[in-house]
Write a structure and sequence with these properties.
Blueprint (H helix, E strand, L loop, with lengths): L1 H23 L3 E10 H11 L3 E3 L10 E10 H9 L4 E6 L2 E6 L8 H6 L3 E10 L9 E3 L6 E3 L5 E7 L3 E5 L6 E4 L4 E2 L2 E3 L9 E4 L2 E4 L7 E5 L11 H5 L6 E5 L8 E5 L11 E4 L2 E3 L11 E7 L2 H4 L10 E6 L2 H4 L5 E15 L8 H14 L8 H7 L5 H5 L4 E13 L3 E13 L10 E17 L8 E16 L10 H7 L20 H7 L25 H6 L2 E21 L2 E20 L2 E4 L3 E3 L3 E24 L3 E24 L25 E22 L3 E12 L8 E12 L4 H4 L6 E15 L11 E2 L4 E3 L3 E2 L4 E2 L2 E3 L3 E2 L10 E14 L4 E18 L12 E22 L2 E18 L6 E7 L5 E7 L6 E4 L2 E4 L3 H6 L17 E3 L14 E4 L5 E11 L2 E11 L2 E4 L47 E3 L2 E12 L2 H4 L6 E15 L18 E2 L6 E11 L1
Parallel strand pairs: 2-5, 6-12, 6-13, 19-22, 56-60
Antiparallel strand pairs: 1-3, 4-5, 6-9, 7-8, 7-10, 10-11, 14-15, 16-21, 17-18, 19-20, 21-22, 23-24, 23-61, 24-25, 25-26, 26-27, 27-28, 28-29, 29-32, 30-31, 32-33, 33-34, 34-35, 35-36, 36-37, 37-44, 38-43, 39-42, 40-41, 44-45, 45-46, 46-47, 47-54, 48-49, 49-50, 50-53, 51-52, 54-55, 55-58, 56-57, ...
Helix pairs in contact: 8-9
């Protein structure tokens, strides 16, 4: 009976295959080959039909010689003749011809089964990852004739000897094995097998199989980007790729991230070059909707980036957006996807600061140590309590964030398309509830490809395709000042007096707390909330530190907006067999600006008040166009020589316009009327900013070529050259040439190793590359001297400060803006890369390693000149910098029954050194904070990492007067004559007998030695779990919250561990308002370990069974819960160890940075 059922299943399967063949058999092919490789014949079939081939090299002997001659024969007839004699079967499905090994004839003999006593029966269902039944899956015991196949519903029944290993296999899917010890129901979900080495990688102006790539290129796919929708694509890439450090500038909604590929290579802008669908994009890629991304390729070495020559010195990020062909499987199908999520954001931590009681104790101690009376009485301290938690009052808890994405994609024989609409909205955790910290983005994308004609019978011009990729985004944002010690909202929340309430009381006899009447009498513009309640103001001694809640309510608005269009129109024609020509026109059109106003207000006495209303508006427009023409020729000789030529030309031009204006004295206080036309400033007194405007342009012309050769995918060679000409350089140095070469060796493809290497080694590839890239990132026309306007002078009179009037006759004047340097030329970086890629256990285990060394020569820097020259400094090629590092990537994936998991990790080690700085002394100071008592604290110097934290070394705390008196130089003079017990002992680092600025040295650095990422993914039945960790090690933080120049400010709670008697502390000095010893000057006391490990993303999802969702016309429905920044492991006690700023010289400086939020999301992915 079982034999009959087996035959019935076979009949059904054959019927289904025959039905699928009935369509394909109409296709005709003609072949005429004599003793050619099977690979050549198969490729000829694909060229004559609409089908592509899917097969495994283990099944099909590509090098077997075959002879076949047919004319206008049906496709199925040809495949029968070609494959069946070789025990190879095939199936035609979804425009693909699947080729597979015909199974060994299996028999299930009922009589034989009944005769064996140790038989156990298994039954179940075989499905794919979406729960769809797999028809004809092989279920068998390897090495025997015991087996069966799944039926039309995916069901099977099989009896096997107890303890047998049963294998489940199906074409294009990963085999699974189970040991059977007892009767059981075994449902098996099979996962499609991805041929890692056959994946196509996007390279400059083309695609290349991963197995023959010789350069250092890392790839991130759409599946890896499938995380809770962030505002920026850079945030998704964090920790995904070795050698790429992405640091959040702040937790502010929509805040940019700093991207560094293989470290900082120049003192100029080290941002990489972004290419989106072939178009270079300026101003970052914030306009992109992360859901629209198909893949991201990071070109890390010079060989991979050399094809882009200009601006490629800092690496290149190639972004490919989605297409209908990439999403929709099969012809004539359409897919609608809708994704959404909604989240709640909260600060992931609060910084520990003093409460009211602790604050009063510390302030009293500082007064007493300075010889003054205590500020607070014991009775006041006893009644103090905890006071106001200014962080709690400032943070916007459960701040909402939401994202919606709708896309429509389709694919037909003539056209494929992808349309998407996205919306993202985020309120900040600081000020978002007051309209002060918000980000909103609308995005629209349309990508389409049209096959104009295709006639494979023609030998010339037989195919023409055209396409268009266009993206648009509209951003609106508001923001608050962040990472600033000068009275920012968060800086004030940390430093404001905890004794003071949020709102001023009706009456008060406390000198720290002023009543409403006193505030309004002295400051009529004191800030109130919407209910008219007056906010408290700081007492004397707080300088620019103000009530942070009042700052969020101040009558001021600054709203930024931008519109950006980026698109590419292209056409590609097949001229001759193997020869293609592609022409494209790309554009990047951006409009951006801000509109703002402020009405009179008072927050604090130092720089935190305005007595006059004002309004401003500015608009900017940037437009870049690019035209490219590229020829590509590919030819395979004798089946083993694969040669590709790329020859192209590129031209681009960028123009910029700016227009702005501002004015004072608005009519009324209605924000809706806050326009420049509503301002009434007295123009006779020139109390207006007036208007500003500007125009600029730059252009670039390029020619490039590349040769790729591989011999039997065993030996690979790539050579590239690009010649760029830039308008930013003078006539003698406009042009530069950037060459590169790379080689590779697939070791296991050697004939003597193909069949003589361990089975667990799949592939081993060695790579080497060398090349040069360029950088033109300077202002336009620096090779000559431009004239600056506004150099006006009044003849026969002057300006009266007392009356604010000007007399005489004003003459408009101009003067040269800077000294010229006609010899300035391209900044160039030279990079060498050595690496290997290894694959084990049928590519289940992968490992990659790279070593690189990069040297930047002729860095473009301003050359110092005496101040009396009266003009700006000329620019010159006067600096050199060097980076070297190691990169590691490892991955593992496995399927165990219904459970599948994957692990991938990467790590990078980086060392940086400034070889030459264009100054006589070989050093430069980049940051000084004299007002806060720090002095200079960021520096660059020849032979050191660039940049580094700069300050004094310390040697503990003076415990008693004897130690103070004993700290003398060789002449018996005290090093620190103003020191007292409890003060910091500073080191005479240079040994000259004096402790002064000459003893300041390197005390830390913001750039990490190590960056790393770890991804964990698992699936079980319909559940999926993804975890992603990222971190750094070997970097320092400069904790600016320790500044001591404002005696009355609140302090971090670690100040409780200060010195307050002999033996109480050897690190934190005594409290002192006067600080005669300068304890809080820049020193290693400010340096803290910035290493961290963060669980960046955690996501748990569940996909509803298809049998449920299809009843309501839904193809797939997945719901999920996820979290961002769920856990952070760090020794740093500041808001956030992940700190970057808009300037590379300030990496790691924490002035009260806007922290990233811990966010909880609920979401769903729906496909129709």
């Amino acid at each position: 009976m079982r034999r009959i059922l087996y035959k019935k299943r076979t009949v059904i399967l054959l019927f289904l295959l025959a039905f699928s063949f009935s369509v394909s058999s109409a296709q005709k092919v003609s072949l005429d080959f004599h003793r050619k490789s099977l690979k050549t014949v198969l490729e000829s079939i694909t060229e004559q039909t609409d089908y592509t081939l899917a097969y495994s090299k283990e099944v099909v002997n590509l090098n077997e010689r075959v002879t076949i001659r047919v004319t206008d024969a049906e496709l199925t007839q040809v495949l029968d003749e070609l494959l069946l004699p070789r025990n190879i079967g095939y199936e035609i499905k979804d425009n693909k011809i699947y080729i597979f090994e015909l199974p060994v004839k299996m028999e299930v003999a009922e009589n034989r089964q009944s005769q064996q006593q140790d038989q156990v029966q298994i039954r179940g269902k075989v499905t794919d990852v979406n729960g769809e039944p797999i028809i004809g899956a092989n279920i068998f015991v390897p090495g025997t004739t015991i087996g069966t196949i799944s039926d039309i519903d995916g069901n099977y029944v099989l009896s096997v000897p107890k303890g047998s290993v049963v294998r489940f296999s199906y074409l294009g899917y990963i085999d699974q094995e189970f040991t059977i010890t007892e009767p059981t129901t075994l449902n098996v979900r099979m996962e499609e097998e991805v041929k890692v080495l056959d994946e196509l990688v996007v390279i400059g102006y083309g695609l290349q199989k991963k197995s023959v790539v010789t350069a250092a290129i890392s790839r991130v796919t759409a599946e890896e980007l499938d995380v809770p929708r962030p505002s920026r694509i850079e945030d998704v890439l964090k920790g995904k790729v070795s050698g790429v450090q992405i640091t959040q500038s702040s937790g502010h909604p929509g805040a940019e991230s700093k991207v560094r590929i293989r470290g900082i290579g120049t003192v100029n802008n080290s941002d990489p070059l972004y290419i989106v669908d072939g178009m270079p994009v300026d101003g970052g890629i914030n306009y992109l909707n992360p859901v629209d991304i198909q893949s991201v390729e990071i070109l890390k070495d010079a060989a991979s980036a050399a094809i882009y020559g200009a601006r490629a010195a800092n690496g290149v990020i190639l972004i490919t957006t989605k297409t209908g062909e990439g999403i929709v499987k099969g012809v004539g199908k359409h897919v609608i996807n809708y994704d959404f999520n909604y989240g709640w954001q909260n600060p992931w931590k609060k910084k520990s600061v003093l409460n009211a009681l602790e604050y009063m104790v510390i302030m009293n101690e500082a007064q007493i140590n300075d010889g003054n009376l205590p500020r607070y009485t014991k009775e006041q301290i006893t009644k103090a309590g905890k006071g106001t938690d200014w962080q709690d009052e400032t943070f916007n808890y459960d701040a909402p964030v939401q994202a919606h994405q709708l896309s429509l994609s389709g694919n037909s024989e003539k056209i494929s398309y992808f349309l998407s609409l996205g919306y993202y909205d985020q309120d900040g955790i600081v000020g978002g509830n007051y309209g002060k910290s918000n980000y909103e983005r609308w995005s629209l994308r349309t990508n389409s490809t049209y096959n104009v004609f295709e006639d494979k019978e023609r030998s010339v011009f037989n195919k023409l395709r055209v396409g268009v990729n266009v993206g648009y985004s509209r951003d609106n944002s508001t923001g608050i000042e962040t990472n600033s010690e000068y009275g920012s909202v968060l800086g004030s929340a940390l430093a404001f007096n905890p004794r003071i309430p949020v709102y001023a009381p009706e009456t008060s006899d406390d000198p720290d707390i002023q009543p409403i009447s006193a505030i309004l009498a002295a400051h009529p513009y004191a800030v109130t909330d919407k209910k008219g309640r007056v906010f408290s103001i700081p007492p004397a001694g707080f300088q620019e530190i103000a009530n942070p809640v009042a700052m969020l309510n101040q009558p001021r608005s600054d709203r930024w907006n931008s519109d950006k269009f980026v698109g590419t129109f292209w056409g590609e024609v097949d001229i001759l067999p193997g020869l293609k020509f592609k022409s494209s026109y790309g554009f990047d059109l951006a409009f951006w600006g801000d509109d703002g106003y402020e009405f009179p207000y008072f927050l604090a006495t130092q720089g935190k008040y305005v007595n006059q209303s004002s309004v401003w508006s500015q608009m900017n427009r940037g437009f870049k166009w690019q035209v490219e023409n590229v020829f590509t020729y590919n030819k395979i000789f004798s089946d083993i020589h694969n040669l590709t030529f790329v020859l192209g030309q590129s031209a681009q031009k960028y123009t910029y316009r700016q227009l702005g204006g501002s004015d004072y004295d608005l009519l009324g206080t209605d924000p809706k009327l806050a326009t420049i036309n509503a301002a009434t400033a007295d123009r006779d007194k020139e109390r207006i900013y007036g208007g500003t405007g500007g125009f600029d342009f730059t252009s670039l012309a390029s020619y490039f070529g590349r040769v790729d050769y591989n011999y039997a995918e065993r030996y690979m060679l790539q050579a590239t050259v690009r010649r760029d000409g830039s308008s930013r350089f003078g006539p003698n140095n406009k042009w530069a040439i950037f060459p590169a070469v790379s080689v590779g060796w697939n070791v296991l493809n050697e004939p003597f190793l193909i069949d003589n290497h361990p089975d667990w080694i799949e592939a081993l590839k060695l790579r080497f590359s060398w090349g040069k890239n360029g950088n033109e990132n300077i202002g336009n026309f620096r090779y000559t001297s431009l004239m600056d306007g506004g150099q006006n002078y009044y003849f026969g009179g002057g300006y009266s400060v007392a009356t604010g009037t000007k007399t005489g006759t004003m003459q408009y004047g101009t003067s040269p803006s800077a000294l010229p340097n006609p010899s300035v030329k391209w900044e160039a970086s030279e990079q060498t890369n050595l690496g290997f890629d290894a694959y084990f256990l049928r590519t289940a285990l992968t490992f990659s390693f790279d070593y690189f060394k990069k040297k930047t020569n002729g860095m473009l820097m301003d050359q110092p000149i005496p101040s009396y020259v009266g003009q700006g400094a000329p620019i010159g090629n006067v600096g050199n910098m060097e980076n070297w590092g190691l990169e590691f990537e490892v991955g593992w994936k496995q399927v165990v029954g219904d459970f599948r998991y994957n692990i991938s990790a990467n790590a990078s080690y980086l060392r940086n050194k400034l070889i030459k700085l264009g100054t006589a002394s070989g050093e430069a100071i980049y940051e000084t904070a004299g007002a806060s008592g720090l002095g200079s604290f960021i520096k660059g110097q020849n032979g050191e990492v660039w940049p580094f934290f700069y300050g004094y070394k310390t040697d503990g705390i003076f415990q008693n007067q004897a130690e103070v008196d004993a700290y003398v130089n060789s002449k018996g003079q005290k090093y620190q004559p103003k020191a007292q017990p409890g003060d910091v002992r500073f080191v005479d680092f240079n040994g000259d007998g004096v402790v002064d600025d000459n003893d300041k040295t390197k005390i830390g650095k913001g750039m990490p030695d190590w960056t790393f990422g770890l991804s964990l993914g698992a699936e079980w039945k319909k559940f999926d779990l993804n975890l992603f960790f990222q971190g750094t090690a070997g970097n320092d933080m400069f904790d600016f919250s320790m500044r001591g120049d404002i005696p009355a400010m609140n302090r971090p709670s670690w100040i409780l561990q200060r010195w307050h008697g002999e033996g109480t502390s050897n690190k934190i000095p005594r409290m002192s308002s006067a600080d005669p010893n300068g304890n809080w000057r820049s020193s290693d006391l400010y340096i803290k370990n910035g290493s961290f490990l963060r669980l960046k993303t955690a996501q748990l999802g569940y996909t509803l069974p298809a049998m449920w969702t299809k009843k309501i016309a839904i193809q797939q429905l997945r719901i999920y819960i996820s979290a961002e920044n769920l856990l952070t492991f760090t020794g740093y006690d500041g808001f956030d160890p992940e700190v970057a700023t808009g300037d590379y010289t300030r990496i790691g400086v924490d002035r009260g940075v806007y922290p990233q939020s811990r966010t909880l999301y609920l979401g769903a992915n729906i496909s129709f």
